[in-house]
Design brief:
The structure holds two protein chains of two kinds. By secondary structure, chain A is mainly α. Chain A has six helices and no strands. By secondary structure, chain B is mainly α. The chains are: A mainly alpha, B mainly alpha.
Chain lengths: ~70, ~180
């Protein structure tokens, strides 16, 4: 990706994006669906859009998935 | 279980923010303890929408995240009010050999930051986009929260992109799809 595309991507916003508060409220539900192989993005497109765009929430999501995977027998 | 998850999460994130060794272990222990407190206080709010363990792990993740955000200000990488415009080409991967092609774009972006954003949006954009201040750390500094900082950045990004589209530097979404 060149600089123009990277800057463009950084500035793009998705109107479906629900914001941090709603995404964090449902993060455990979303992560459990993903861990179970359910297409969570289809059920919660606004959360998916947010997790793609928000670095801190994306980090929390990755951490929660890692915790779920680490706890799996 | 909580401590193990806190150690794993602290270990995953810590090195990126230069927290290691006993300091990292201390952070993990505190996060696990605070998460246990939060879980105990909020157990009645669990609605069974996910596994209980996933719901509980969420508090561990949030506590590690918050503690790492606070840690940032012990060793800030640059002053909050610095404006590191010269770092933008590197950040977005602009090729120095093609500076004549992107110099005008970045100048237009800088103009838009000065003219399109509110003072608060500008402050947040400069801190996050130019000075690499993590949003959680910025929220602590400004007495705000992650959601408000994100909303400020969201609106700033939307305005800046619209300004660059209006001035012909970027394509709008409709023409991209057609």
């Amino acid at each position: 990706m060149n600089g123009w595309a990277a800057l463009d991507l950084f500035l793009q916003t998705d109107p479906r994006d629900v914001g941090c508060a709603e995404a964090m409220d449902l993060l455990h539900v979303y992560a459990d669906l993903v861990a179970a192989g359910v297409p969570a993005e289809e059920r919660y497109p606004g959360i998916a859009a947010h997790l793609r765009a928000c670095g801190p929430c994306g980090q929390d999501y990755d951490g929660l998935l890692a915790a779920i995977a680490g706890a799996a027998p | 279980m909580l401590l193990r998850a806190a150690r794993r999460e602290a270990g995953r994130r810590g090195p990126r923010v230069q927290i290691t060794g006993p300091e990292l272990e201390d952070l993990a222990c505190q996060a696990a303890g605070d998460a246990l407190l939060a879980i105990t206080q909020k157990a009645g709010q669990f609605r069974g929408e996910s596994r209980f363990t996933t719901w509980a792990y969420r508090f561990v993740i949030f506590e590690v995240s918050a503690k790492i955000g606070r840690h940032f200000w012990r060793h800030p990488t640059r002053p909050l009010d610095a404006e590191s415009w010269d770092r933008l080409p590197d950040r977005f991967g602009f090729d120095p050999a093609q500076e004549s092609e992107w110099r005008d774009l970045l100048a237009a972006l800088r103009r838009a930051v000065d003219t399109e954003l509110t003072p608060r949006q500008r402050e947040v954009f400069v801190a996050v986009a130019l000075n690499d201040v993590p949003p959680d750390a910025l929220a602590i500094k400004l007495g705000s929260n992650r959601n408000a900082i994100y909303k400020m950045m969201f609106d700033a990004r939307r305005k800046l992109r619209a300004a660059l589209v209006a001035n012909g530097y970027l394509h709008d979404e409709e023409s991209r799809r057609s």
